Amino acid sequence: GQQVMQIPQYQHVQEGEDFTTYCNSSTTLSNIQWYKQRPGGHPVFLIQLVKSGEVKKQKRLTFQFGEAKKNSSLHITATQTTDVGTYFCAGPKLGSSNTGKLIFGQGTTLQVKP
Amino acid sequence: SQTIHQWPATLVQPVGSPLSLECTVEGTSNPNLYWYRQAAGRGLQLLFYSVGIGQISSEVPQNLSASRPQDRQFILSSKKLLLSDSGFYLCAWTTGWYTEAFFGQGTRLTVV
Predict the structure, then answer these.
(1) How far is CA A85 from CA A54, A81, B54, B74, in A?
(2) Shortest Cα distance from B16 to chain A (angstroms)?
(3) pLDDT in 10s for each residue of chain B, 112 residues
(4) Is the CB of B52 inside 8 Å of chain A's CB atoms?
């Protein structure tokens, strides 16, 4: 079946270090979304990528969608303690046009040591 | 602006007891509504989705059911809870495809 995989599952960094999480889909995606979930909180939408090879930036966060639209990455430059949380990628479920159903990766949990 | 309300925030229920979790959306009409479950340290699993009143689709076989009695109300239910029903339940809405999902605060359910 359709799968979205994320690596690594956990990442511990020193504040100021960079961080990257990778997302790989078993199928070509029409778009990919990224969410952040703070500890004890709910997922919050960060960004959506639609075009092949697309790169978007939000301050210290850089999101990339692969040329084949089967992988994506989130890179955080100079992490801060406010970056702590779990980052999820999600893509549309196959055969789910106009329903908004999403398949989520398992998430990458980021810990930042001050 | 649109908001989503989900309650209760925390629930501890004995095995075999019934369950009712409610979610309401404000500030939009005819949203797509979803129930997700998140096991501890895991990703989100889609349980149910609804594109309109009375229209419910189940994504995985389980001990739960969902209902949508009003356009902006989505209810997750169970007649008899199992230990395996424990988890973090999240309600979400979208306006359709290619749009982001907005999540409620979630209900942390512990079945004991």
Answers:
(1) 24, 9, 36, 28
(2) 27
(3) 778 999 999 999 999 999 999 999 998 888 999 999 998 777 899 999 999 999 999 988 789 999 999 999 999 999 999 999 999 999 999 987 678 899 999 999 999 9
(4) no
